[in-house]
Specification:
Number of domains: 2
Order of helices and strands: EHHHEEHEEHHEHEEEEEHEHEH
Helix content: 25-40%
Low-confidence stretches: none
CATH class of the largest domain: Alpha Beta
Mean pLDDT: 82
Strand order of the largest sheet: 5-4-3-6-7-12
Radius of gyration: 30 Å
CATH superfamily of the largest domain: von Willebrand factor, type A domain
């Protein structure tokens, strides 16, 4: 397994565009300075040993060496030894509705964005629990299999949007059954959290919740949306809002929370329903409920020893710096006729 001991050094990569801009400005300034002496062709004949290509190559070598140094300072480490550790937790699957109605902004900045932010905060609170992520609209898909890799969970979470599922709808029943199949055959406490507005739901979600309860899996539901509802914003391919969704008669569509249905699903799944609002999404309340469940011990393999690999990046950086040092900006008299860099000779 690869990790970086000091990832804060990666902020140094932000300087690369700055260096490129400074170098471009310097080349432009140098060209203007030569123009002051006279016509460029004549000036080039007067200084035949100058080489623009060499200057560019020296800069590229410095830039590549700088990049190697940043990665080296971040200190990549390779896991070299696996060991078994005993953990105590539960298995948790979060099913997120990604239908277009989740773009409504009655909960700021939007129902979906607020759900993502809250899940990210929930992941930060997890310790030994295992988590999986499912997305659903017209169909349900596994976004992240159940894992203890919380970094991966947050990475996959950041990619979730309404375009990730091609078919519109709210297939809650399919999401529940997919979550049931995601759990291992073990004695861990298991829970499913469904985050949705419940609008246009399809299938027998209450029956699916009962099936989960029979297997000892609790289902919690979080209703995303306010009672008065909100219009569904429409966006172009560049992410600019173009208006709101309208029906066939040209009326603006208002998406409203289907609260009774979500309450019934939670009740059938021996769980709890919470309605989100602009103050809180309800995940913290649900998490407190889940923490009351009995946590089961299980074994997990983790890397216990890591070996530094910074030297494999600093070594080529030093070689590139040495190469840049021995390449002169001007051609020497001895090598004037040698053309390694595709330079145009002045006639």
């Amino acid at each position: 397994m690869l990790q970086f001991a000091k990832p804060e050094y990666f902020y140094g990569l932000l300087m690369i565009p700055v260096f490129i801009i400074i170098f471009s400005v310097m080349l432009s300034w140098k060209k203007k300075a030569l123009h002051r002496f006279g016509e460029l062709k004549l000036v080039n004949k007067l200084i035949p040993d100058q080489s623009k290509n060499r200057l560019v190559i020296k800069f590229l070598l410095l830039l590549i060496a700088y990049t190697f140094m940043i990665f080296g300072l971040a200190n990549p480490q390779i896991g070299s030894k696996l060991k078994k550790v005993e953990r105590k937790g539960i298995d948790l699957v979060i099913a997120i509705d990604v239908s277009n109605s989740m773009l409504a902004q009655d909960i700021k900045p939007s129902r979906l964005m607020r759900a993502r932010q809250s899940i990210s905060k929930l992941v930060d609170k997890l310790k030994n629990d295992r988590i999986g992520i499912i997305v659903f609209a017209g169909h349900a898909y596994t976004q992240l299999p159940i894992t203890t890799d919380y970094s991966a969970a947050k990475l996959f979470l950041s990619t979730i949007n309404t375009d990730i599922v091609p078919t519109q709808g709210t297939a809650i029943a399919e999401a529940i059954r997919l979550a049931i199949d995601s759990f291992d055959e073990n004695n861990h406490e298991k829970a499913i959290i469904i985050i949705t507005d419940g609008e246009d739901h399809e299938g027998d979600a209450i029956q699916a919740a009962k099936e989960a309860a029979e297997k000892g899996i609790r289902i919690y539901t979080i209703g995303m949306g306010l009672p008065e509802g909100a219009p569904i914003p429409m966006y172009d391919k560049h992410g600019n809002q173009t208006g709101f969704k309208k029906d066939l008669k040209g009326n603006t569509v208002i998406t409203k929370l289907n609260e009774p249905m979500l309450q019934q699903i939670a009740s059938a799944g021996n769980g709890k329903y919470v309605r989100a609002n602009n103050a809180q999404t309800g995940l913290s309340i649900i998490f407190d409920e889940i923490n009351k469940l009995e946590k089961t011990k299980f074994e997990s393999r983790v890397f216990s020893d890591y070996e530094d690999r910074f030297q494999y990046l600093l070594a080529p950086a030093l070689l590139l710096l040495l190469l840049e040092f021995i390449i002169f900006e001007r051609r020497g008299k001895r090598f004037r006729n040698v053309n390694l860099f595709g330079e145009k000779k002045n006639v």
